[in-house]
Design goal:
The protein has 120 residues and is mostly helical. It has helices at 8-22, 26-41, 49-53, 58-73, 80-92, 99-109. This is Co-chaperone DjlA N-terminal domain-containing protein.
Length: 120
C-alpha cells in the first residue's frame, strides 16, 4: 500500500501464499479474504509492530522481509514509496535496510514465471 495501490497481482500472490502455507479450511479462507479486504481498506501503519516482531527469530524476520519485498515487485512496478516502506520494514525487523536494493534487483532479474523471486 506504500504506493496507494494494491494491484490484483499483489493481492492474489499474498492470498495464494497464505492459503497454501497455512493449509486453511474453506471457512478460514473466506475469513482471511474478508480480513485482508478490511486491512487493505484501512489506513495501515507500521507503528506498534516492533513488539509483535520482537519474538521472531532472525530466520523468521528474514523471511518476512523477503516476502514483503516479493509482494512489492510482483506487479512489475516499484515506486519510491514502496522502497521507503520496505526500508522501514527491514529496520523494524532489525535487518539492514540497504539490503532492500539488492533484494529488489535480484527479484527484478528473476524469471517472471517464478513468483517467489528465487532462481531454479
Amino acid at each position: 500500500m506504500a504506493d496507494d495501490d494494491v494491484s490484483e497481482a499483489e493481492r492474489d500472490h499474498l492470498v495464494g501464499h497464505l492459503e497454501s502455507s497455512l493449509h486453511l479450511t474453506p471457512g478460514e479462507r473466506m475469513r482471511l479474504k474478508a480480513h485482508l479486504t478490511w486491512l487493505l481498506a484501512s489506513e495501515l501503519k507500521l507503528a506498534g509492530l516492533k513488539k509483535r516482531l520482537a519474538g521472531l527469530t532472525v530466520e523468521q524476520r528474514t523471511h518476512v522481509a523477503e516476502f514483503s519485498t516479493t509482494i512489492a515487485v510482483i506487479d512489475g512496478h516499484i515506486s519510491p514509496g514502496e522502497v521507503k516502506s520496505l526500508r522501514k520494514i527491514y529496520t523494524l525487523l532489525e535487518l539492514d535496510p540497504d539490503t532492500v536494493y539488492s533484494r529488489l534487483h535480484g527479484l527484478n532479474a528473476a524469471p517472471r514465471d517464478d513468483p517467489s523471486g528465487t532462481r531454479s
